[in-house]
Design goal:
Length: 262
């Protein structure tokens, strides 16, 4: 890291946001028009969260330098075609911020005790799913792979092992639903599973929920029919779009550049 990056401070960030005319509004303040409490994609759990690496990254205004990211995507048998289609949204979200996600899909057979994936509250917990994923590879992501993601019928929403998990071979694991609107304790009909995958991989690449806002998404998303008002790291499933905010992508690109080897 150069001296220039080391001197970038919170004051620089505030100045950049002010100059850009952006008001970074916490998404929970402006969740629009939802009569019921909003459904959440996930909670921020995990024990390796921290602001990376040593200080704030410079703002990623220029994303023309492409950063590669190698993803292994696990799917249950028979779900490959559906997952590939959903993952196109994920890849587009990252390509828009200059990260080229290369995917390799791998079909897996989950433990029989997980059931058929339509039970409410009867499926596996987070630890069981993470353990299953890691055990496939001896506890660590495969060589040459940056992150492992499981698009599964056995979870509603998403979960990342830890924020910034790409730094660790044994923590770069996340998963999310393949059909959030059909299974799920909390139905969220507008949740896009490709956005959920982008959100969870965003966590692995250092992004927190409070980096999101509900200002930047619409101008970029509306032309492609994405009318969700909040940026991808918003935890609210019904409002999260496939557009990363400036703050989100600044951290994500920094993590991908420093810790991804894809
Ligand atoms: Zn989250």
């Amino acid at each position: 890291m150069g001296a220039e990056a080391r001197t970038f401070t919170i004051m620089n960030w505030l100045a950049v946001c002010a100059l850009a005319g952006l008001v970074l509004v916490p998404s929970f303040l402006v969740n629009p028009g939802v009569a019921q409490p909003p459904s959440v994609i996930d909670g921020e759990l995990g024990d390796c969260r921290e602001i990376p690496p040593h200080e704030l990254p410079p703002p990623a205004i220029d994303v023309s330098k492409v950063i590669p990211l190698e993803a292994r995507v696990l799917v249950e048998r028979g779900d490959r075609a559906a997952a590939q289609k959903l993952f196109a949204v994920t890849k587009r979200a990252f390509s828009d911020i200059g990260i080229r996600v290369k995917t390799r899909f791998q079909e897996v057979d989950p433990p029989r005790q997980w059931g058929d994936g339509d039970g409410l509250g009867t499926g596996p917990n987070q630890e069981a799913i993470l353990t299953f994923m890691k055990d496939l590879f001896g506890g660590r992501r495969p060589d040459g792979v940056d992150i492992v993601y499981f698009m599964t019928r056995h979870w509603a929403g998403g979960f990342a092992d830890c924020i910034g998990g790409v730094r660790y071979a044994d923590r770069a694991f996340a998963f999310g639903s393949i059909d959030y609107s059909f299974e799920g304790v909390i139905p969220a009909p507008t949740a896009d599973e490709g956005v959920i995958a982008a959100h969870e991989i965003g966590h692995l690449l250092g992004a927190h929920h409070h980096y999101s806002n509900c200002v930047e998404a619409l101008p970029q998303g509306a032309p492609r029919g994405d009318l969700n008002p909040c940026t991808t790291m918003s935890p609210f499933a019904a409002t999260a779009s496939g557009t990363f905010a400036l703050l989100e992508r600044s951290f994500i690109r920094r993590y991908a550049a420093l810790y991804g080897n894809g």
